[in-house]
Amino acid sequence: MRMTFIAGLQRLAAASAAIFFTASTPASADEAAETFIAGILDEANAVFSAPDVEARNAGIEALVDKYVDMKRVARFTLGQYARIASDEQMEAYLPLFRKYATSVYQSTLDPYTGEALEVTGSVDRNERDFIVNSKVVGAKPGSQYADLVVHWRVYRSPDGAQSVVDAGASGVWLAIEQQSTFKSVIANNGGGSVGIDALIADLKAKVGE
């Protein structure tokens, strides 16, 4: 059963303080990262107003494919096991992770149907790593969105290209939670190559393959 973005992240926040992200003191905000996310949100806000679930999910999938560095995120979620995964395991894992992660984005963004997000600022962690914050436009005091900050983690490659590598709310991050879950699956199934095979089998079940 999937948790909604709001309920799921609030539950994780209450139960898993250890995965909270604490940014170092920023040197400054980053206008380029903010502009990048603002552009994505303009597209996302149109998707949120799609007339049906199928159209909305297709729109979110297109945005994920366009802007999320899925290969980087997939390797991150394996943690230390990425170093020991064979080429064959990675070949099987990467497309499964893409399907799984896309479904997570679709389910976690679903509560924003009819809402709009706007950038409110950013944290410049270093020359490659940025956190851009956003909030629901016009959220009324007392609503579930009133104090919610939605975060977008941006990676900037040496050539200046930017991509999304994580998203979250109120300090809880999707990729970090996925890494915790995946590492547990691997460790609980013998670790090493055998555990990675177990994770691949688990992802196949989750995405219906």
Task: Walk me through this protein's architecture.
By secondary structure, this protein is an alpha+beta fold. It is built from seven helices and five strands, in the order αααααβββββαα. It has a single domain, classed as Nuclear Transport Factor 2, Chain: A (Roll), CATH 3.10.450. The chain starts with a helix and ends with a helix. The N terminus is likely disordered.
How would you concisely characterize the structure shown here?
This protein is α+β, with helices and mostly antiparallel strands and 209 residues long.
Give the name of the CATH superfamily: Tgt2/MlaC
The neighbouring-strand order within the major sheet is 1-2-3-4-5
Number of helices: 7
| CATH architecture level-2 label | Roll
Structural class, judged by helices and strands? alpha+beta
Defining key terms:
disordered N terminus; five-stranded antiparallel sheet; Nuclear Transport Factor 2, Chain: A; 209 residues; globular; 51% helix; 16% strand; 7 helices; alpha+beta
How would the blueprint of this fold be written?
Layout: H1 5-15, H2 31-48, H3 53-67, H4 70-78, H5 87-109, E1 117-124, E2 129-136, E3 150-156, E4 162-169, E5 172-173, H6 174-188, H7 192-207
Antiparallel strand pairs: 1-2, 2-3, 3-4, 4-5
